[in-house]
């Protein structure tokens, strides 16, 4: 849930700052900034809580390396969303990345994996299952903030 607080909080803050300074609403830009900040937030979690996240994907080889690499990918994507020349490509790759993460979230929900304590006691199925619609929200968010807006202007 912290990721949603970061995403929506930064989005509202950026919209407010833009409106106060320009009297316009730059939804796509605010959306990309919010997603970039959220990605940095989640990437930090990949480095700080790598052991717990590796347990979630323990069925794969090199689980710790995968967690580290996904954190690096999130940092690169955060930068890419903010650069005008790379925002469209980054958006497409980020949507693919989020789709590829869905199986890990489904696995965590089915097995009730708790990332904070790296055990199988979990916070309950409702917490873990909400991660799946969150991934769908992130996909839609990236689409509307980096891809759809650009298609309309072409």
UniProtKB/TrEMBL annotation:
It comes from the Bacteria. Keywords: Membrane, Transmembrane, Transmembrane helix. The chain crosses the membrane at residues 6-22, 29-50, 62-82, 94-113, 125-144. This is DoxX-like family protein.
